[in-house]
Structure formats: structure tokens, C-alpha cells
Amino acid sequence: MNRILSSVVFARRIFRKEAEHPRGLFEGLKAYRTQDGNIVLFRPEENALRMRAGAERMCMAAPTVEQFLEAVKEIVLANERWIPPTGKGSLYIRPLLMGSGSVLGIAPAPEYTFLIYASPVGNYFKEGLAPINLVIETDFHRASPGGTGGVKTIGNYAAVLKAHTAAKAQGYSDVLYLDCVHKKYLEEVSSCNVFVVKDNVISTPAIKGTILPGITRKSIIDIACSLGFEVVEQLVPVDQLLSADEVFCTGTAVVVSPVGSITHKGKRTSFGDGKVGRVAQQLHTALTRLQMGIAEDNMDWIVKLK
Ligand SMILES: *Cc1c(COP(=O)(O)O)cnc(C)c1O
């Protein structure tokens, strides 16, 4: 009896995993405590819309924008005491959408769970705003044209874990991926987008389905344009790194992270002599001043919770 029972439990567990794994979407955003005592979110409706776009691609049911925003606000206010003081960190919010139910074949899941985790966080990279060291991956790819690299599905992280773990073991901060067709154009880093600076021009790979359309990326493009930089979204060949003045990454978790070096096929290219690049610094300051409530929110990006 015991044996049968335990094998039933085992079968159920295996089955549940199979049903849930292929369908999972996540989001990431932060709640900040501003200088004047407000609690704010940065463009949360963008996260809601991105989850809906992802759900459409993955054949999942998704919360409406209103349901998403309501749930995020509720979780932040319920965890208010865990939001770090201004400038000391933020409350990271991780909405999750999972499919489950009795399906073994290829079919949409009959049930969905939308849940949200929250956790106080400091800096993503232990280096802080100090430059990070990236390695270009030439064997593994995170996405392919027509695939799901452009939506925030849990599978994207599973695909990069092996390369990411190996890079970490060799002392790198993260991995920079190349396109899987030509193996020569920059795509992005495991969990953030990449920008390359030359003189007054900032280039970043265009959104074509294989890179994640970062909300920080989009915001930094607007901020850079308003500061007088020329921003171009185009193919960025890996060779362009050799002549770049600066390289930096953007994402909710990493904010704006300057890149100190990139290693490609064993050859290391350094930027900025270990110092934070001028453009990365300027953009980091502009973005964080907005999020901390210091700069005026001309773009209407800040949602006040209290
Ligand atoms: C979440 C994520 C980003 C950054 O997106 P933001 O909206 O700026 O946080 C970039 N790349 C990948 C692969 C991601 O999962």
C-alpha cells in the first residue's frame, strides 16, 4: 500500500513538473522609497503589457493591466517595511505567471496561477557601479529568430545557465551573447540589454524577437536622446567593440552597469581604464534621480503609491 501510494505521489510530481515547466512567464520591477517619503513604482504598466504580450506568445491566460497593477500595488504596500531607505536599495517585485493542469501533450494549460514575490535588494553586481567584466559566448545561444527570446519566459534563463555558470567560475560577471545565425552581432547579456558608445553616438541592438525588450533599455534610449546623444537601434557587430569608447548594460536589476572589459575568443578588450564611463555615469545619474524622486518626472514614468 505504502509503495503504491509513494509511486502515485512520485508520478504526480513528475507530471506536475512537465505540465508547468514549458509555460512560465515572469516580470521584474522595483518599488523605491523617495527622498520625500513617497513609495513609487517605475513604469509598472510596461511590465503588465509585456506580461500580456508574453502570454499571447506562450498561449497563456494573463491578468489584465489593471489586475496586474492592483496586485503589484497591494504587494508593495503590504511589504512597505521591507523597502530600504532612499539610495540604499529597493523592493524587487517578481510577478510570476504559471500554467498547470492535467495535460501531457502539446496543448495550452487549463489553469493559471499569477503570483508575486517581493524581496529587498541592494546592488545586483557586487561591484556596484564599478565596471563589470563580460565574456562573449560563442557556443551557446540564448535565443533564435522566431523563438521566445523576446518574451520573458522562464525557459530563457534555463538556456543560459550553463554558459553563465561557466563564466562566473572563470571570474567574469556575466555573459554577452551573439546572434545565432551569423555569430557576429551583439544580442544581450543574460538578464540585461547592451549599449555601445562611440563619440556622441550610442548604438544598441534593435528589437527583432531575439532580445528582450527591456523597459530600462527603452527608458535609457529616451533619456539619452533628451540629453542630446544620437541613439541608433541597429545591428552591432562584435568588431565594433574594439573601437568603442564605452559599453554599458541596462536592466531593472542592474540599472545602468558600465562594462570594464569584454573577452572574446581569449582576447580581452578594456574600456575606461577601470573607471566608470562618462556616458554610463550620466545616464545612471539621470535614471536614478528620477526613480528616487529627485528629478522632475517630465515623462510621467513614476507611479506614486502613497
Ligand atoms: C528582464 C530582462 C532584461 C531587462 O529588462 P528590464 O525591463 O529593463 O528590466 C533584459 N534581458 C533579459 C534577457 C531579461 O530577462
From TrEMBL:
Belongs to the class-IV pyridoxal-phosphate-dependent aminotransferase family. Its EC number is 2.6.1.42. It catalyses: L-valine + 2-oxoglutarate = 3-methyl-2-oxobutanoate + L-glutamate; L-leucine + 2-oxoglutarate = 4-methyl-2-oxopentanoate + L-glutamate; L-isoleucine + 2-oxoglutarate = (S)-3-methyl-2-oxopentanoate + L-glutamate. SUPFAM superfamilies: D-aminoacid aminotransferase-like PLP-dependent enzymes. Its cofactor is pyridoxal 5'-phosphate. Keywords: Amino-acid biosynthesis, Aminotransferase, Branched-chain amino acid biosynthesis, Pyridoxal phosphate, Transferase. This is Branched-chain-amino-acid aminotransferase. The modification N6-(pyridoxal phosphate)lysine is found at residue 152. The keyword Protein biosynthesis does not apply. PANTHER family: AMINO ACID AMINOTRANSFERASE, BRANCHED-CHAIN-AMINO-ACID AMINOTRANSFERASE 3, CHLOROPLASTIC-RELATED. CDD domains: BCAT_beta_family (cd01557). It comes from the Eukaryota.
